[in-house]
Amino acid sequence: MNTMKKLFIAFALSSALFSCKKETTNTNSSTNSSNGVTCVENPNINFTAIGTPVGKFSDCIKDIDGNVYKTVTIGTQTWMAENLKTSKYSDGTLIPNVKDSLEWIKLTTGAWCYYENDEKYNAKYGKLYNWYALSPTTNGNKNVCPTGWHVPSQGEWTILTDYLGGESAAGGKLKEVGNSSWKNPNIDATNVSGFTALPGGGRDIKGYIDNNVGGYYWSSSEKVESYAWGGVFLNYSAGSLDSGSENKLVGLNVRCVMD
Fold it and tell me: CA angle at residue 158 from 157 to 160, to 5 degrees?
């Protein structure tokens, strides 16, 4: 891409974001003091990329722990615009926090952890969950998402991806802009969807991996006995995204979608 085109796109995006901020004035707002985010009720914000409407902010929601999340409507779907942070199912049942690596890799029941077992990662990146925490067949028919929301199926991730132009283009439209979270160069990141995907990394049999490098999100869809579909896999070095399967014991981030 030549220099003039880059400047044009940067100007268009910054102008769109500026106009969005001016539209958000609304007395019906709520603040989550744990992460400093102010959620504005129904501000009718339209995200645009060179004149093409993509998504808009919707109401805030709160989980059973009291965490408050912005949400965003993209096409026909409404998504959390932040990673899930809950330590409980929607009925109040605790999800175990498993720190020990040897214990983690033997699990066939639900669990969560902080990246590197350090709570400092929670405010920005949320928690990492194994797949067993998400599936009603392994968590006692419980819901890890707030009431009225659920963990997206692989098909629901595909609807989102297709709406944003397919796997070759959707990654950049989902990723948070800049390098405050993502490692440089964070290729093609525009976040024109408002989804604000973050590089929360993951936890596998070798330990913790890829914070600032990759954003990995579960789906609720099982593939085979030991594997389930990861909804999308995003990387700092590409504007595309991948989808594939992961071992159910792997810890990944979660985004919920409205019922």
Answer: 65
Q: What are 173-201's pLDDT values in tens digits?
A: 999 999 999 999 999 999 999 999 999 99
Q: Half-sphere exposure of 239 toward its Cβ, with a 13 Å CA cutoff?
A: 14
- Which residue's entry shows tokens 């593939």? 223
Q: Give the chain's domain count.
A: 1
Q: Which residue has the tokens 């991806």?
A: 161
User: Are 44 and 23 contacting, i.e. CB atoms less than 8 angstroms apart?
Assistant: yes
Which ranges in 58-166 belong to alpha helices (H)?
Answer: 101-104, 122-125, 154-163
Provide DSSP, 179-247. Answer: SSSSPTT-TT---TTS--B----EEETTEEE-TTTEEEEEEEEE-SSSEEEEEEEEETT-SS-EEEEEE
Query: Residue 41: what pLDDT?
Result: 45
Q: Whole domain around residue 213: which residue ranges?
A: 3-258
Supply the pLDDT for residue 60.
82
Write out the two tokens for 148. Answer: 């009225």
Beta bridge partners of 80: 71
Longest dimension (CA), the chain: 56
pLDDT of residue 67: 94
- Do 198 and 215 form a contact (C-beta atoms < 8 A)? yes
Q: What is the DSSP letter of 119?
A: G
* pLDDT tens string 10-68: 333 333 332 222 222 233 344 433 334 455 544 444 444 434 456 666 668 899 999 99
Quick check: 74 and 194 in contact, CB under 8 A?
Answer: yes
Q: What 3-state DSSP class applies to 251?
A: strand
